[in-house]
Design goal:
Helices cover 38% and strands 13% of the residues. With 332 residues, the chain is of the alpha/beta class. Helix 3 runs parallel beside helix 4. Bound molecules: iron/sulfur cluster.
Length: 332
């Protein structure tokens, strides 16, 4: 394996693509059990994002051919299930996007499975159309939840330009029905409140039709302008992901969630806060109960049944005391 590719795979870890674990060269998406080959085409970058190591050191690059070859070799050996192609801005945005598209085209010559292509700020409309034609999923990162903060962390990205491209992406993806999707990512811990992130998340799902809203907790990196800033806790990101699940999977009204914030922040697990403020109307409202367990409760399974099946019921127990069957649980 090309040593530069291995380095570029490690350097792509700042782009979240799900609950992925980096395993040497391959990212394993835990929920889908899919193994993704995720790497940058280049870690050279002309942009100046203050949280990113790429603009502050000399980077390396590979060609679209080298990237595609590396992926197809891993694929032939049965080591990966899909590819994620991204890049630092080693050249002008249209050239960078052209390289990403070319990589996708080379991969597609031999591979029909999952391909995710990054859309870079500055990509043109036709390039976005081409990228979506090739990929199963595309993404463009909006980076910060609070629009006014973007200029504090990067001088060359414009919120307006990014959202304009996101609008194009959304229109193009919609043409394919459910067979294509797009996602975005924000960094948590740059001075925004939970209320800012929730408002941004809501807008992204409702107005742009994204499939996933990824939250990357800020980590200060050596030799970047933000190396002395405080890192964001994983606990905060986990609470925000709970909100994401409530909005995305259960159709919770984000305005209801705002009612349980204190000074714009979640002080506890959002499901606990919501249950205590609004009570429990459906099994899915029970703290600690996810969609699968909620379905089983609806079918009449008891907490003891769930426990026997391997579900953790510790958090749910205080909210379901004495419950044996659904009919015993008075509030339903
Ligand atoms: S665009 Fe920003 S985040 Fe992406 S590689 Fe360049 S400096 Fe890093």
């Amino acid at each position: 394996m090309n040593a530069r590719i291995a380095r570029l795979a490690a350097e792509s870890r700042f782009d979240v693509c799900g609950d992925c674990k980096f395993n040497g060269l391959i990212y394993v998406a835990m929920s889908k059990k899919a193994r993704l080959f995720k790497a940058l085409l280049s870690s050279n970058c002309r942009f100046d994002c203050a949280y990113c190591p790429n603009p502050w050191r000399k980077g390396i690059s590979v060609t679209p051919e080298e990237f595609a070859r590396a992926f197809l070799n891993l694929r032939r050996r049965g080591l990966v299930d899909g590819a994620f192609v991204s890049s630092g801005m080693h050249s002008d945005p249209e050239k960078v996007m052209e390289d990403i598209i070319e990589t996708g085209q080379l991969i597609r010559k031999e591979f029909k499975g999952y391909v995710h292509l990054k859309i870079v700020p500055g990509a043109n409309k036709e390039q976005i159309r081409q990228a979506i034609e090739i990929a199963n999923r595309v993404s463009i990162n909006i980076e910060v939840a609070k629009p006014s903060m973007l200029n504090e962390v990067v001088s060359v990205k414009s919120r307006y330009d990014i959202l304009r491209r996101e609008r194009w992406i959304s229109e193009e993806v919609r043409r394919y029905g459910n067979s294509k999707s797009h996602t975005t990512q924000v960094i948590a811990g740059l001075g925004e409140s939970d209320a800012d992130i929730i408002a941004c998340m809501k807008r992204q799902y409702e107005e742009y039709g994204i499939s996933r809203f990824y939250i990357s907790p800020f980590t200060p990196l050596k030799n970047t302008p933000m190396e002395n800033c405080r890192s964001e806790s994983r606990k905060r990101a986990a609470r925000l992901y709970s909100i994401d699940a409530l909005i995305r999977l259960y159709g919770f009204d984000a305005r209801r969630i705002r009612d349980v914030l204190e000074d714009g922040m979640l002080k506890d697990d959002p499901k606990v806060l919501l249950a205590e403020k609004f009570g429990i109307a459906r099994p899915i409202d029970i703290p600690g109960i996810g969609p699968r367990a909620a379905k089983l409760i609806e079918k009449g399974y008891s907490l003891a049944d769930l426990k026997r099946m391997g579900f953790s019921v510790k958090k749910a127990t205080p909210y379901m005391a004495g419950q044996k069957r659904l009919s015993d649980f008075a509030i339903f």
